[in-house]
């Protein structure tokens, strides 16, 4: 089944509003970060599992990793194959989560907020910093300008294709595009509030990269 960008957006934004944000509100109240994820069936866009960041338990329990763990905790005969699923993350997956999605067998992922949003609007700079510091190796032949412009990871590769919600919105036109832009803006405002709660208590829960 091949879905239109509007259908995918409707599923992602509804899942975010109805399921991920309420869970995130509980998570940030206990000191975890604002990141969430969902796994949906390609066949009908129904939600298989939703999860959020749980770094107060372990710094590896990012929203995406927690979601993958819960997906694989389902009995094998009750869960679809990863190739039969769509992976959605509220925030562009970090290096840990990009690898987690890859190792788990998903052939796609979509995200709402970009790394730059996470750094600038959410005041969490680690995604970009880890990719630049750990993975981005300068080559002697490259100018500093070319190095700075080199993408931090490959959004279309042998394992998966990644697309942002903004990419999907840009597929639309006219009133349909305006409606989706408005929905995204409303969700962004809700996240501003959740981010304020997290930032207000940041540093008090022993998370190594808070
Ligand atoms: Zn992550």
From TrEMBL:
This is CMP/dCMP-type deaminase domain-containing protein. One of its GO terms (biological process) is nucleobase-containing compound metabolic process. Pfam families: dCMP_cyt_deam_1. GO terms for molecular function: catalytic activity. It comes from Kwoniella shandongensis. Residues 29-111 form the CMP/dCMP-type deaminase domain. InterPro entries: CMP_dCMP_dom, Cytidine_deaminase-like.
């Amino acid at each position: 089944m091949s879905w239109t960008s509007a259908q995918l957006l409707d599923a992602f934004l509804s899942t975010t509003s109805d399921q991920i944000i309420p869970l995130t509100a509980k998570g940030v109240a206990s000191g975890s970060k604002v990141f969430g994820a969902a796994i949906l069936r390609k066949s009908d866009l129904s939600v298989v599992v939703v999860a959020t960041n749980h770094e107060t338990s372990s710094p590896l329990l990012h929203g995406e990793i927690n979601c993958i763990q819960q997906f694989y905790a389902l009995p094998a005969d009750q869960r679809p194959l990863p190739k039969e699923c769509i992976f959605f993350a509220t925030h562009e997956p970090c290096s840990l989560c990009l690898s987690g999605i890859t190792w788990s067998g998903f052939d796609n992922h979509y995200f709402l907020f970009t790394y730059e949003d996470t750094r600038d609007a959410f005041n969490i700079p680690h995604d970009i910093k880890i990719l630049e510091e750990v993975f981005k190796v300068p080559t002697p032949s490259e100018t500093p300008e070319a190095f700075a412009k080199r993408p931090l990871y490959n959004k279309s590769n042998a394992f998966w294709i990644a697309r942002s919600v903004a990419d999907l919105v840009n597929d639309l036109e006219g009133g349909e595009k305006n409606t989706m832009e408005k929905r995204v803006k409303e969700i962004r405002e809700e996240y501003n509030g959740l981010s304020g709660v997290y930032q207000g208590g940041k540093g008090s829960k022993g998370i190594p990269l808070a």
